[in-house]
Design brief:
single chain; mainly alpha; two-stranded antiparallel sheet; 9 helices; elongated
Length: 357
């Protein structure tokens, strides 16, 4: 039975089936390009040792030397790989915390303001778009793609038009907003001030009662906390002493391996050395990619697709909330035409609910 394709997570879901088994993939998503040089060099060194062993003198070493070195190499690679994957996993979890906070704040703001006067509804619409912008700002900040210096305001300076340095923000940020990235203030933290001010205004105007506003504040604090932890992952690198020693130990192990194998395996020592070093350097290369999980590699977190999916989700909530302000319309209740890109036609939520009951 074929899986049912759904609209949520449309961008982050896999659409194309794998045409080749993963064991036969050497280009897309693989790390072979990063390790081909050291593997070839170790193979060439193994060829040299075998040739010298045959034509000059016996260069063999006792095979017992291999277990001693392999234990050290294995422990170092396990530590490196586990540490790197923890960074990847923690980065994904912290991104989920930010997304969850945006969802919760969006739900609370919209659920409490769909009957507001027009001026207050405009303010709510603006703050929801700022919440979406926080997702983009988080993604760009972690990739060192700093925010725009200014979002032009045509009413103030018509010559600027609608151009922005980062098109993702064009319909999300308030016009005339100056970014302060060049002065060391990240756009994410700057945007949280707008959210905090909205919560304060809602409390003063009686839109939210005090415990509810407190919960909103908790969500905002969780967002900033997760953002700071993602920054820590991005900025904290593996100590260079560990990296140097690990590379030297790998090179030493690959250099000793031909001497320990040449007596027993003769020319077969060459492919065996290639296979062993391919495995070890491959683990090291995967760990290097996982250390910074916020980039553009196939092994990194799919931040572009995740943010776009959440934007679509919140945009639908915002659209339904705007309709809910119309007379005779309740949010998520009533008839609507053309239920999405899947062409599902007319959906009568009320009739569906009555039939289900």
């Amino acid at each position: 039975m074929d899986p049912i394709t759904t609209v949520p997570f449309a961008r982050t879901s896999r659409h194309k089936p794998r045409r080749w088994p993963l064991a036969l993939r050497f280009i897309k998503g693989a790390i072979h390009g990063a390790i081909v040089l050291p593997v070839v060099l170790h193979a060439a060194f193994a060829v040299l040792i075998v040739a010298l062993d045959h034509n000059v003198r016996n260069l063999g070493l006792p095979p017992s030397i291999i277990p001693s070195l392999s234990i050290v190499v294995g422990l170092m690679l396990v530590f490196r790989h586990q540490t790197s994957y923890n960074r990847f996993w923690d980065g994904q979890n912290h991104l989920t915390v930010i997304i969850t906070s945006v969802r919760n704040l969006t739900r609370s703001f919209l659920a409490n303001s769909h009957r507001f006067p027009l001026a207050d509804r405009v303010e709510t619409d603006r703050i929801i778009r700022i919440l979406i912008a926080i997702l983009y700002a988080t993604k760009n900040h972690l990739r060192a793609g700093w925010g725009p210096a200014i979002i032009p305001d045509p009413a103030i300076n018509p010559s600027t038009g609608d151009a922005t340095s980062i098109p993702e923000y064009s319909d999300l940020l308030p016009r005339g907003l100056y970014g302060c990235d060049d002065r060391g203030l990240g756009l994410v933290l700057q945007l949280t001030f707008f959210v905090e001010q909205y919560i304060k205004k809602g409390t003063d105007n009686g839109w939210f009662h005090a415990p509810q506003a407190s919960q909103m504040q908790v969500q905002l604090n969780n967002m900033v906390d997760a953002y700071g932890k993602m920054e820590t992952i991005r900025l904290t690198s593996v100590p260079v002493a560990h990296l140097i020693h690990q590379k030297q130990v790998l090179a030493l192990f690959g250099g000793v391996l031909p001497f320990a194998l040449v007596d027993q395996m003769d020319y077969w020592a060459i492919p065996v050395v290639m296979l062993v070093m391919f495995t070890l350097y491959g683990i090291d290369a995967i760990a290097s990619q996982l250390e910074d999980p916020f980039g553009y590699d196939r092994t990194d977190i799919k931040m572009d697709f995740i943010v776009e999916d959440i934007r679509s989700e919140i945009s639908v909530l915002l659209e339904e909330w705007k309709k809910a302000g119309e007379p005779g319309y309740e949010m998520f209740v009533g008839r609507r035409q053309g239920a999405g890109a899947g062409g599902r036609g007319r959906i009568d939520h009320a009739n569906h609910a009555n039939g289900a009951s």
